[in-house]
Amino acid sequence: MTSSDMNYLTIALPKGKLFAPAARLLSAAGYTADGLSEDSRRLVIANEAHKIRFIITKTADLPTYVEYGAADVGIIGKDVLAEESKNVYELLDLKFGLCRMVVAVPEALRQEKLTDYAHMRVATKYPNTAERFFRDAGIQMEIIKLGGSIELAPIVGLAEMIVDLVETGRTLKENKLVEVAQINQATARFIANRVSFKMKFERINRLTEDLRILAESEKK
Amino acid sequence: MSRDQFLPQIPYGTKDFLPRDARRKRAAENALAGLFARWGYDEVVTPTFEYLETLTVGVSGDLVQSLFKFFDKNNAILALRPDMTTPIARVAATRFRESVPPLRLFYLTNVFRQEQAQAGRQCEFYQAGVELLGAGGPAADAEVVALAVAALLEAGLTNFQVGIGQVEFINGVMAESGLTVGEQQRVKQCMVSRDLVGLGEILAGSSLSAAAQRLIREIPLLHGDDKVVSEAYRLVGNDISRAALDNLTDIRRLLAGYGVERYVTFDLGLIRDFDYYTGMVFEGYTPGLGFPLCGGGRYDNMVAAFGVDCPATGFAMGIERILLALERQGIAPPAAVRDAYVAWGDGGLAQAIAEADRLRRAGRTVEMALEACSRTEAEAARAAKGYAGLVYFDGNVAPG
User: Which terminus of chain A has a smaller tally of CB atoms within 10 A, N or C?
Assistant: First the structure.
């Protein structure tokens, strides 16, 4: 199934911590469906009355679903968008899910300036983001891509540094890591497929405006 | 056929068109070639590879990055063509100096880009397109858009939309805005990467008034029917943007004459390469395909880069994308025509050849058995190959 049915709007939501606030926000805008939950065993959850379909994807895959038009729109963190650099419309900053992409090292390896870390090994789930950051800073690094538990890498000597997403910084502290630089800040974004945005313009634009108002009032 | 386990690979981004796909591709291409010819366009075929420096004339950085490059025996750098617009501009500037404008040319060919494969676009992919050179007015742009609509219809699509915009509209807004050159670059970069959040952030950090910021933020949302143009006219005060809107209105009026206006939507936020296009731009979309089917517009500076001042407009469409859209929309591909299977028993080959020849001259599609077989075997072979009829010569008597 694709988004070829012009009457339906297919919305992709990511598993994980953004799911609940994203589903809540959409619901407030009138976009919801019976049985829409993260642990749903159904892959596609439809609301036939309102011609809405939800699909729930793995976080890193969400931009791909939207880029190919398998979903018309989606909600995803800017961290994932920046990492995957897919060709999609980034329509709206939804302001929730704030976290920061940071560079961290074990306390003992802390250096005076960023360039002193040159040629160290960096473990991360976000190799493109890390690569870009260090390249722009004029530093060559050895990037090691991992799928998760990044904090483990410096402990066992797989890498000296990490680039990872932090919300509160507690995980860093627990693993005796200190933040040495912030790469960027990320919040949830409302994105759209480039063709869907044109062909279903009225509906997507109206939803964007509704979400904008909701996101701003929630922030206050 | 049983050389076990021997599976040679083909490079990333390439594909084989097996008979079913090749037939669909051929049918689409024949239909398009016929259409372009009926509109007075002549086909040109240019080299698959050219000198790098020729192919990069007037082309954006992104496209240059994606070229397949190699050396000739004198170590000159060659590249596979990434599109046909530059080769045609070269041809127009160097080979048609004496001809009477305008020049109408079309092509159907493969092009090559080293990039992440997309839906209906591998690294080698096929394009059909036209270039209308030497004509600057809205009539030329309208002809090209109308021809693109006709081409999508000719290919068999019924459900699609063409959005038309005008790069000068945005350029006028930028020039009027009072943004610094650096800010303008960043704003355009955000528009090209469709990052409307980033666009808002740049504007919020600029010295623009709230109203001026809102105008630029709204450009991507100026989308719809004629009302959008009058709305945009109210929003902008500068002559460049207004001239762009007048140009779109003229084109739209001409498109109504072609009877294709119901496929056309105004989209002032339509973004194509700013460094390349100089006027009207357009893209074609269909439901169920997340990427545009075709795109084009006016590029008046490109041919000048080859030393001849020559306004130009045109479009390219992705053949594989059209085939993919047809398939997804359940539009039946042409069936293979298989009229007769001609088989023979011992001594019947000469008769069989004569009959196959007669049928083929009469326009039938005929396959012939290459070894003697019984009538039962021949019938089984006919059924397996999907031929409508069997003609069998047993070598003694005339066929029954």
Answer: C
